[in-house]
Amino acid sequence: MKNIISPLTWNNGILSLLDQRKLPLEEIIVENRTVEDAYNSIKDMVVRGAPLIGFTGIFGMALFARTNKEANVEDYIKAADYLNSSRPTAVNLAYELERCVEIVKSAFSNNTSLEIESLLVKFGYEQLDLIHRDNLSMAETAMKDLENRLGKKKYRIMTLCNTGYLACGPMGTALGVISHLYENDRVEHVYASETRPYMQGIRLTSYELKKQNIPHDIVVEGSFSYLMKNKLIDAIFIGADRIVRNGDTANKIGSSTLSIVAKHYGVPFFVVAPTSSFDFSSESGESIPIEMRDQNEILFVREQRVAPLETSALNPSFDVTDAECITGIICEEGIISPVSKDNLLKITGRK
Ligand code: MRU
Question: CA-based, 20 to 30 A from 176: which of 132, 190, 206, 282?
Fold first, then answer.
């Protein structure tokens, strides 16, 4: 892709992050030099999107190693716990941090603890390469599945939130599928849901679609039924912050509503996510922690208050889509469809 600014780069102990709070109007880089900087960048949503939050966690651990040369294993575990407390719903952060702690433990037991920073940086690059390969294979799986279901033609696709390279690093999950379909001349039009209140759809997805010249319209969340009743959507692709054993999936607030409307009108609804977004320790969506965010994200638009002064707001940032409303979950191991615990374990090879 041309004219793309990488959302995350590491250079000589500085973690540079594209400030997604300022997009699309300004392209500003925030430099992180300490683990606290990385924590704040995740918490304040300089970066966001499940995989990118995980990668920021890895490089945050590398920053900790760089600035705490005397740290022992316990200190690293505390740093990982600290980073993990920055945002609760996307499980990728815990997944990557657990692996960082394993790297640290093995460095200490092999007397290579002086190299921890470079080991963590190497791991970070490996994970970025891996997600690129995985995203590509998910996109190919999705294209084949759509061709089987709907025939070889141009599709009208709907998506919600932002799941592109801004959320993943090199490529995207659901938006990666859309880019891949477009490159293969399989996209007629994209409908990107604005994603209130943080506006990831209107600000970030349209920014990415525009950069790739993919024809699209922004739609409001209230239009779901209109669009599907009037047969304007062939298929829906969303990402995931956490997928549990029975296939229940946490994603940006509004995803569950979209899935229910899709089921009602018979529109195929797909979740696209790497297995680092799977939480095999939870049986069902009921145990997924849902992040409650600041009510001012709803009460204000940019700096302008739009609600009456005495009004408050409730701001759950994610919801759980029931497995029964999902046509297929696409991961790097293939497609899980129909979505069931047995199929999920079979396709991923987990127990
Ligand atoms: O609050 P955000 O912007 O971090 O939420 C992001 C989402 O819900 C994405 O859809 C999800 O993380 C998938 S990212 C490939």
Answer: 282
- How many angstroms does the Cα of residue 53 sit away from the middle of ligand 1? 9
Where exactly does CATH 1.20.120.420 map onto the chain? 8-128
Query: Could you list the active site residues?
Result: 241
Q: Which residue's CA is the nearest one to ligand 1's atom 5?
A: 49
Neighbours of 338 (CB within 10 A): 12
CA distance 106 to 35: 21
The CATH 3.40.50.10470 domain(s) of the chain lie at: 136-348
Binned at pLDDT 50, 70 and 90, residue 68 comes out as: very high
Sequence-distant (6+) residues with CB within 8 A of 258 are 158, 160, 193, 221, 224, 236, 238, 269
* Domain range 136-348, CATH class: alpha beta
Domain 8-128 has CATH 1.20.120.420: yes
Does residue 338 have a cis bond before it (omega within 30 degrees)? yes
Residue nearest to atom 9 of ligand 1 (CA): 49
State yes or no: pLDDT of 112 exceeds 90: no
Q: 241 C-alpha vs ligand 1 centroid, how far in Å? A: 6
Cα distance between residue 251 and residue 316, in whole Å: 11
